[in-house]
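[User] Once you have settled down, look closely at the record that follows, and write a paragraph about the fold.
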Amino acid sequence: VLGEVQQSSQYFEKALAIYLEVHGEEHSDVAVTYRLLGLSFWGCNKDEQALSCHEKALSIMLNIDCIERSEIAKTRDCLGDVLHALGRAAEARTQYVQAAEFGNRSSMRSLGLLMLEDDSREDGKAVEWLSLAAKEGDNEAAKLIEGLDGIPREEWPWNIRERMMDSEDPS
């Protein structure tokens, strides 16, 4: 699978070069391709390169008028994931909040998990975000809410994110 992801990076880099030549920098196709390239880099554990691509994609998206808000939200969600992986939780939270406010359910779930992980004592807000994600159809958020129902915070498992990732792993 890693070989396929690495190959996809090469294809996205070629597509990006073509889009840049045809459209110039400030175009929606260029921005989306930067995001896809960032996802590909992230899949290869090249977090710094992924971060650079997602930041570039977001910068372009915020400067053009013809991009849908859902595309901006997806990019903010991807950027949040990379920032969180790099240990930059406060910056990740900012991206997740902005994406979640646009209705991105993945960011709603990630924001809820991030709030549960820190000691900010925002459990109520975390559960609100997870509930919103569940209401929007996020099954992992729904399972987590169900699993925490009625359990006092001091008894919650502190490896919630790891448990969530394990539940997504089909093996």
Notes: The chain has a mean pLDDT of 86. The chain has nine helices and no strands. Residues 12 and 36 are 7 Å apart (CA to CA).
